[in-house]
Automatic annotation (TrEMBL):
<dbReference type="GO" id="GO:0008757">
    <property type="term" value="F:S-adenosylmethionine-dependent methyltransferase activity"/>
</dbReference>
<feature type="domain" description="Methyltransferase type 11">
    <location>
        <begin position="48"/>
        <end position="144"/>
    </location>
</feature>
<dbReference type="InterPro" id="IPR013216">
    <property type="entry name" value="Methyltransf_11"/>
</dbReference>
<protein>
    <recommendedName>
        <fullName>Methyltransferase type 11 domain-containing protein</fullName>
    </recommendedName>
</protein>
<dbReference type="InterPro" id="IPR050508">
    <property type="entry name" value="Methyltransf_Superfamily"/>
</dbReference>
<dbReference type="Pfam" id="PF08241">
    <property type="entry name" value="Methyltransf_11"/>
</dbReference>
<dbReference type="InterPro" id="IPR029063">
    <property type="entry name" value="SAM-dependent_MTases_sf"/>
</dbReference>
Length: 278
């Protein structure tokens, strides 16, 4: 079930933990998109749809500081953080606005040469509407760059959590967090084709997510307020589970499975990335 804008606003202050994971694939996606249609070409304009705290925006402005860019998100908390980044970094020609990605009200047809969305479509309500709207606002011949999570259950957290919880509730199963139609590579390709994009290219990237230790993983997953994580935690509570009992087992499993020699932890997450043309 998709989460509300208010949920994401509450999670925004700690979203820097996710930025550590999403920055590398955003850089990879930007490179592939710019190879198809250079971002330093004349009359270029970029759109970061579902921008969150501005990871993709930051990557674009670092490499192509003169590109005009509109960044939108449905969460005012996310936009507030991005606006502070814009002011602090003195990024030129960046506009941040609260906009519903399903309608993109106020954005004209054929507005952008480059349209991006990173790790939003898979978590949002009505993803097909969002993708159609992104096509609408992209210029003819323009390029889409899309990134979503490649696992609808988001295994880095849910796999060890499920194992920990089954010690108390033998048939416990965490909820599916995302729509498989917008996570699995073959489905993403089909969805972009259905939306009317052409020259669709889809690939997967295995990402490293490094943490100081298992306790840091647990602190973010259980206490960090991320709406997707809260759904998983609440599903255990709803069946009578005690989080305080499951937590140390979760930490032990994380350390055993992904712990490094220096005590740190390296989780792995799968991303599905795609480029396409209008």
């Amino acid at each position: 079930m998709p989460t509300s804008n208010e949920d994401w606003a509450a999670a925004a202050p700690l979203y820097k933990q996710v930025e550590r994971l999403t920055t590398p694939p955003c850089q990879s996606l930007l490179n592939r998109v710019s190879a198809l249609l250079p971002l330093n070409s004349p009359s270029t304009s970029a759109f970061d749809n579902g921008c969150g705290t501005g990871v993709l925006t930051a990557v674009v402005k670092t490499l192509y500081p003169r590109v005009p860019l509109l960044a939108t998100d449905a969460s005012d908390g996310m936009i507030g953080i991005l606006q502070r980044r814009i002011d602090d970094q003195k990024w030129a020609e960046v506009t941040a606005r609260v906009v519903d990605s399903r309608t993109l009200d106020g954005i004209k047809d054929d507005s952008f040469t480059h349209t991006f969305s990173t790790f939003m479509v898979c978590l949002a309500p009505e993803p097909e509407k969002i993708v159609r709207e992104m096509r609408r606002v992209t210029r003819q011949g323009g390029v889409l760059g899309l990134a979503v999570w490649g696992d609808p259950s988001f295994g880095p957290f849910t796999s060890p959590w499920e194992r920990a919880c089954r010690g108390f509730i033998s048939d416990y199963k965490p909820p599916m967090l995302m729509d498989a139609n917008w996570t699995l590579a073959r489905n993403v390709e089909a969805g972009l084709d259905e939306a009317g994009f052409k020259d669709v290219e889809v690939w997967e990237e295995d990402l490293a997510w490094r943490w100081e230790n298992a306790e840091a993983v647990s602190e973010y997953f259980i206490d960090g307020g991320n709406p997707a994580n809260l759904r998983t935690i609440d599903s255990f509570k709803a069946q009578g589970g005690d989080v305080s009992q499951a937590r140390p087992i979760f930490e032990r499993i994380v350390q055993e499975e992904w712990g490094q020699k220096n005590g740190s932890v390296e989780l792995r997450a799968l991303a599905t990335l795609a480029t396409a043309r209008k």
